[in-house]
């Protein structure tokens, strides 16, 4: 397969739209979220994402031990 053919394949793959475009709206939000709700949601997300990785890093030496 020549470089030209690969280049054409990549260009055509980039041109095709696998996922339809999102409907973007400039209207205001239907439900306003308070600062407290945002803080709770962000805290929950950080704990869910960073908690397990922090646990693993904190106990890395324990995992290295061969028993």
UniProtKB/TrEMBL annotation:
CDD domains: Cyt_c_Oxidase_VIII
Keywords: Membrane, Mitochondrion, Mitochondrion inner membrane, Transit peptide, Transmembrane, Transmembrane helix
Predominant location: mitochondrion
Listed pathway(s): Energy metabolism; oxidative phosphorylation
This protein's record includes keyword Phosphoprotein: no
Top-level taxon in the UniProt lineage: Eukaryota
InterPro entries: Cyt_c_oxidase_su8, Cyt_c_oxidase_su8_sf
Family stated for the protein in its record: Belongs to the cytochrome c oxidase VIII family.
Name used for this protein in its record: Cytochrome c oxidase subunit 8B, mitochondrial
Organism from which the protein derives: Dicentrarchus labrax
Gene name as annotated: LOC127353803
